[in-house]
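Methods, example record. To illustrate the input and output format used throughout this study, we show the complete record for Fused response regulator/phosphatase. The sequence lines were provided to the predictor; the line carrying structure tokens was produced by it.
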Amino acid sequence: MTVANLPQLAPGPPRPRPRRLVLLVDDSAAWRRVLGGLLKMGGYEVIEAASGAEALDLCRRLSPDLVLTDWAMTDMSGLEFCTAFRLLPRSNYGYVLLQTTDTAAQAISAGLEAGVDDFLTKPVIAQDLLARLSACERILRIQEELQDTNAHLRKALLQLSDAQAVMDRDLCEARKLQQGLVRDRSGQFGPFQISLLLRPAGHIGGDLVGFFPIGADRLGLFALDVSGHGVTAALLTAQLSVHLSASADTNIAQRGAQGPSGGAGPAGLAHFFNAMMLEEMSTDTYFTMIYGELDRLTGQVRMVQAGHPHPSVQRADGTITHLGRGGMPIGLFEHPLFDEIEVTLHPGDRLLITSDGITEAATPDGQQLGAEGLDAVMRTNAMLHGHAFLESMTWSVSEFCRGERQDDMSALMVEFHATGRVIRLDGVP
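The corresponding predicted structure is encoded as:
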């Protein structure tokens, strides 16, 4: 065996690479000395094996970076060695260079299938050996870079996972706090029963519903929906809840807030919130709202609609009417137009106020529930009352959109029980 053009492998400048461990596998000691000398001149650390079995043992113990093996050995072929080599556990990739005199396509195909990375044709030409080593260096360097990158990615993923776990815990606690903003999910005031529904699409959301007493004979009712989702919406919801809490010290409606136009009541509250959003908050967030005041003696409800979905009144005979013309959202315009609504409830009637997370719930192909769909849900569940009605409505909406709900769902329902009596405005019962 000879090696052509030996001077071509004279040592050059230091290579910017780690020192590689090369295993020479050949039953010819003379040939191992020749190739080993060339590899050492190139800066490689070389170990030798005279048989396939010895080579496999060295591979188990030392994990060489490169294995340069002969096609034909006394105890096994180069292909058999390579097949066994690929089954060994390793922490890094091992490159296999197979020396052969058979360059037929069938032999090359068999070698690649066995796990050979490259072939070195005998008799060995120095330039070919140098080229094969250069290719080996590129592959191993890429492999090491990938391993380093994967290690960094795994570390980053673990850190992200830990951070996500912390965020999830915080959001779960925030959800509990937000749910606590709605302290009473229902209330009974004479013949009037009020029921609330609040279902964020995620951990926290921007919907809020509630009620509070105003004096002895009136109740304040509110439903609002802050634009967007997540923390920003939840923070604004929390701030608004302070102004709509049952505490007379902070409740704007209970204190008879005066709007810019000087009007009190539901419209005045909407104007107050609009001025607060524009003057005190540097944000692009806005919200829709319905705020109403129910007179428990007359059954009359005075409401303001500020961009919120239309309230629905279901009469005792089953007929459904949608109220309002829409109005403008709060926090967008300096001089907004809000819609003022008046309706009188009679025994057996119910008033339902929902967020757009219900009316705009959509199937996977984009078909929305809409007002007609909500009417159908109300008729289907007409015999139910209170939370049973709201839960059944929620189930119907989820079934309609195949469980792929993207928005918060909230609702406020006022029911005037048929056994109750109302006093007309002229005082006659």
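Annotations derived from this record:
The chain has ten helices and 18 strands.
Residues 182-416 form a domain with the Phosphatase 2c; domain 1 fold (CATH 3.60.40.10).
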